[in-house]
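Milestone 3.1: sequence recovery, worked example.
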C-alpha cells in the first residue's frame, strides 16, 4: 500500500534529490544533512535522503510550525491504520 498526500504539490515543493533538499534547508541544518549524507554507506544513502526530504518538506510547509507544535503538544490529530484500511476497502481501493 502506498500513501498519497492529501494536498499534492505540483511541482513538488522540495525536489527529491540532494540538491533540492539542501536548497530547502537552512545553513546549519544543510550542513548536518551533507555531513550525514557523506558519512552514509551507499546502501544507507537512500534512507538519509528520504528522511531529510521529509525534514525539508516540513521546513518549507507554511503550516509546518503549527504541525510541529501540535505534535509536541500531543494535539495533532491522528488516524489508526486499521481505520485507513477500512476506508480504502469501503471505497474499493487496494489495501495490500
Amino acid at each position: 500500500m502506498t500513501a498519497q498526500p492529501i494536498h499534492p504539490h505540483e511541482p513538488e515543493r522540495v525536489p527529491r534529490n540532494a540538491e533540492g533538499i539542501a536548497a530547502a534547508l537552512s545553513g546549519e541544518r544543510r550542513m548536518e544533512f551533507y555531513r550525514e549524507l557523506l558519512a552514509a554507506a551507499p546502501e544507507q544513502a537512500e534512507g538519509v535522503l528520504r528522511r531529510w526530504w521529509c525534514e525539508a518538506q516540513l521546513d518549507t510547509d507554511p503550516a509546518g510550525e503549527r504541525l510541529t507544535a501540535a505534535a509536541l503538544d500531543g494535539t495533532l490529530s491522528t488516524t489508526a491504520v486499521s481505520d485507513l484500511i477500512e476506508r480504502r476497502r469501503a471505497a474499493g481501493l487496494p489495501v495490500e
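The helical segments are 18-24, 27-39, 42-60, 64-73, 81-90. The two ends are 5 Å apart (CA to CA).
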